[in-house]
Amino acid sequence: VSELPAPLRWRDGALEILDQRRLPGAEVWLRCATWRDVAEAVRTLAVRGAPAIGIAAAYGVALAAPGERSVAAAGLKAARPTAVNLAWAVDRALAAADPLREAEAVAAEEAARCEAIAAAGAALVPAGARALTICHTGALAAGGPGTALGVLVRAHREGRLREVVACETRPLLQGARLTMWECMRLGVPARLIVDGAAALLMRRGEVDLVMAGADRIAVNGDTANKIGTYALAVLARHHGLPFYVAAPGSTVDPAAADGGAIPVEERDPDEVLRIGAPAGARASNPAFDVTPAELITAWITERGVVRTPPLP
Amino acid sequence: VSELPAPLRWRDGALEILDQRRLPGAEVWLRCATWRDVAEAVRTLAVRGAPAIGIAAAYGVALAAPGERSVAAAGLKAARPTAVNLAWAVDRALAAADPLREAEAVAAEEAARCEAIAAAGAALVPAGARALTICHTGALAAGGPGTALGVLVRAHREGRLREVVACETRPLLQGARLTMWECMRLGVPARLIVDGAAALLMRRGEVDLVMAGADRIAVNGDTANKIGTYALAVLARHHGLPFYVAAPGSTVDPAAADGGAIPVEERDPDEVLRIGAPAGARASNPAFDVTPAELITAWITERGVVRTPPLP
Lengths: 312, 312
Known about the structure:
2 copies of one chain form a homodimer. Chain A is an alpha/beta fold. Helices cover 36% and strands 18% of the residues of chain A. The first copy, chain A, has helices at residues 35-43, 50-63, 69-77, 84-95, 99-122, 148-157, 174-186, 198-204, 229-238, 270-273, and strands at 8-11, 14-18, 29-32, 129-133, 161-167, 190-193, 209-212, 216-217, 223-226, 243-246, 282-283, 288-291, 298-301, 304-306. Chains A and B meet through helix 7, strand 6, helix 8, helix 9 and strand 11 of A and helix 7, strand 6, helix 8, helix 9 and strand 11 of B.
C-alpha cells in the first residue's frame, strides 16, 4: 500500500504547503511563515479542498501574533467564500488558548473523520463497480485519505471498485492533474474523460455510481461542490444511478437553511479564457454549483451513511 | 453587417482551407493540391463541421486523377467516421461527370440550405433570449452562415437574441476558439463558460434555449453531435427548456434506423491528456455522443421546423 500524499506539514515554526498548482509536474513545498502567506496560498489554490483549506487556515491563525488574530481570522475566512470548513476551523483556532495545538487537533480530527467516511462509504460500492468522480477529493484535499476519493481508494483496496472515472474538471483541471496523480500513485485504476463525456459513459453503462465531495451542505441537504457536480447529479438521476456526497460533518452549515444561502464563488474569467479564447472575449467562471437535496441518494459523513440530510 | 468567415476557397487548381486549428490566434490558409492533402486536413481538423467537411471532401474527389477517384473517395470517407455529409458529398462528386462542378454545386447548395435553416430557426428564438450552444456551428463549419450558430446570428440580426452562451467544448475548445471568434467578428454578444457550468446557468435562469448542430441524424431522429451535447439535452429537459437541432437535410442518414447505427469516433486520448494529466495516465476520448430523439424539441432543416424526425 502506497503512502497517502499529504498536503500540509508544520516545520520550524511555519506551515509548509505542497503546492497543488504545480502538480503533477513538480512536487514543490511552499513555506508560509505568516497568516497572510497562508491566506494567499488558499486564495490562489496552492492548497485546496474543503477540509485541507480549513486545516491550513487554522494553522494560519496560529501564525498570527496574539494581538492580530482577529484580523488574521477575518482575512483567512475571506480567502475563499464557499467552503464552510474554512470559517469553522478558523473560529476554532481563534477561540483556543493555544491556536497551534488547536490547528493540530483540527488536522487530526479531520483525518479521523475522513477515515470513518472511507470505511462507511466503501460499503456502498458494489463489486466490480466503476465510479465517476469530479474535481479532486483525495488525501491532498483533506486530512487523511480524503472524502469522495478516499471512499473510492478504500473500496479498491477492499477489492470492490474496478475503476475510477475522473472528470477532468475544467477550468482548473483538478481531476486531470490531481485525481489522476493520486490514483496512479496509490495504484487505483483510473481513466480520465472530459466533463462533457460523463453522460455518454452513463448511457453506455460504463459508470455504476457517482461519488462527489462537498464544500458546504445546507441544513436541508442542498450541497455546494465544484462546478459541474450539479450536472452529474441530474445525469445520474436520468440514468437511474446513485449519486453520493462524501464529506465531514464540518461541511454542514447550520446557518444555511438551504442552497440559496450558500455563496457561490465567481473566479477570474481568465481561468476559462486563457487556453483558447480570442483576446477580449467575455466569460463567466462560477467555481461551484449547488445540487438540490432531492438529487442526492445519500450523504456519507464520519457518522455513517444517511439518506436524509446530515445534521450539523 | 460583417462578412461571414468562409472556411474554403478554390484557387489556381487547389483547395485552400482556413486552418481552424490555428484560430483564433492566426488566419492561415492551408493549400491542398491533392486528395490526400484534403483527407489529412479533414482528419486533423484543419477543416471541421459536418457541412464543411462534406464540401471539402467533394473538392478532394475533384483533385484526384480520373483513374484514382474511387480510391480517393474511400480515403476521404475514412478520414472521419461520424458525419454523414462527408460520405454523401463524396458520393455526389464521384458520380458526377465533372467532380469540380459538382463540388461547387454541393458548396452552393449547402450555403443555400444554411440560409434557409437560419431563417426558419431564428423564428423560434423569443425576444431577449439567451441561447446556449456547443462546439462551433457557424460559417466556418459550413457553407453560408452555418447551422445552429447561423440561426443564432440571424436571430440577433433580427433583434431577438440577447446573448450566445458558448460551451467551451473540451477537448478541442471549438466553442472557446471558434464560436467566440465568429461571434465577436459578427458583433453578436457572446459569453464563454466551461462545459460543466451549463447546468448552473440553466438553474439560474440565464439560458432560455439550447441550439445544437448535428453530425448525423438517424431515421428515428436520434442525433449524433459533439461530445457533451447529450448532457445538454438531458439538462434542458430537466429545466424545462427547449432543445433544438439545426442541420441540413444532408445530415440525415437513411441507412441509420436509430442512434445505435451511428459510429462514434474515438479520437487520440492525448487530446484530453495533454493539458494537465500526469505522464502515463489513461483517458477515453469519444468525440461525439448521440441524443435520443425524445429529448429533442424540434429539428430545423432547410425545409423548416419539424417536431417529428426530419426525412432523409
